Amino acid sequence: MNSQEQNMSGLVPRAIEGALELAVSGGVEAQRQHLREVLSQVREPALTLIDTAAFAHPGAGQPGRLRVAIVMLGEDCESWALELQEWKQLAEPPLISAAVPIRSAVAVRFAMRAGAHDVVFIPADAIDLARCLVKLAETRHHGTGNRSALVCALASIAGGVGVSSLTVALGFALQHLTHQRVALVDLGLQGGALAALLDVEPEHSIGELIDPTVTVDSLRMESVMTVHSSGLYLLAAPQRLEESEMVSVGTIGAALGVMRELFDFVLVDCGHHVTEGVVAAWEHSQRLLYVVEQSVTSVLPAQRFLDFFGRLKLRDLQLDFVVNRFDRHSPFTLDKVESALARPLALKVPRDDDAFIRMQIDQPDLSMVAPQSAARAGLDAIAAALCGLTTAANGRPHGALFARLRSAVGL
Fold first, then answer.
1. Cis before residue 45, ω within 30 degrees of 0?
2. Angle between helix 334-341 and 296-312 (nearest 10)
3. Could you tell me the fold of the domain covering 150-402?
């Protein structure tokens, strides 16, 4: 460990009860100083910076205190395992957050493979650091180093109700709300709508996971995903139509099993056809959002779906209905839809055709093309509901997680 790292004063001058013991290592002094300055903006969890030499003494920390090392890694991904080796060989190794200079899925893959528990990008961002440290603190609280994402499927057996558009828009809403890793999965295998909506041309797809003789692990999963410029990840539909028929139930189950460990939220676009693969996706999900509109051609298929869903007996899967393109002046009122489905319909996305057209033409993030739109407020409310938050009358989410993220950066 670098002798220049011994002077760690300047962030927290004294030990704070319950704080994380944190060391910054690797890189050059200018990089470490930059990281310390960004860390000074983090308000939660409480941090105590200590020198790296203290980590070599087992039991030196206070009982119950979590130790974290943020390790600056170099430009050569192949050397990262060696750079982290001395930390992993300590008698009481800390949790390691790798600070990487390359903002890509490949860098994340190499860092996790090298032994990091989480990854932050350099130049650093206070919110990203807060996310990382809160997550590591909760790792200690729950006694596990494994990530487990919320997997939410979106579906409708009536075509044209906007399942794919809502999947993309909800992905952005979750990303803005939580500042965590969000992945999208396109199980509309023949249409490939998610790539079109994100305006990306995937070089890889779920079709590369179909070989049953090769294990689907985190390395293989990272290699087939597409990263949008916003940071959203996409597991795209196959590029060739004939490959869609080869994506098996086992492939879908294995992919979602690995993605639950790599991401915080996974949204699955199930399209409008029920197949064995789609049902397998539901079996690996905690939430299912069924999209319906205020029309007979949408509600009648939804009734058929409810009958089918009841026979599946997926008791661990929470089913909710989302009314898309909601129009309070429609003669097909919300009361009529609720009566037909015998279900409450609390989740609504107001009709805003202009915003969704601009989303397809200009920018897939509604917060960029229509920040004040009612549709964006509706999607924010759904994102808040998925996170277990409540929503105030003005459409702004609030609750434990939101307050934590705000206080973490001193807002």
1. yes
2. 30
3. Rossmann fold (3.40.50)
Same fold, 3-142 and 150-402: yes
* Phi, psi (degrees; rounded to nearest 5) at 236: -80, 160
Residue 250 pLDDT greater than 70, yes or no: yes
Domain residues of the chain, as ranges? 3-142, 150-402
Closest CA to 375 of 409, 393, 352: 352
Task: Classify burial at 278, counting beta carbons within 10 Å of its beta carbon; exposed 0-12, middle 13-18, buried 19 or more.
Answer: buried
Give residue-wise pLDDT tens across range 16-38. 344 678 888 888 888 888 888 88
Give percent of the chain with pLDDT exceeding 90. Answer: 45
Q: 0.85 exceeded by the pTM?
A: no
**What's the rounded Cα separation, in Å, for the pair 14 and 28?**
25
136-149 per-position pLDDT tens digit: 766 554 444 445 78
- Mark 197-209 as b/e (b = at least 16 C-beta within 10 Å): bbebebeebbbbb
Determine whether domain 3-142 maps to CATH 3.40.50.2300: yes
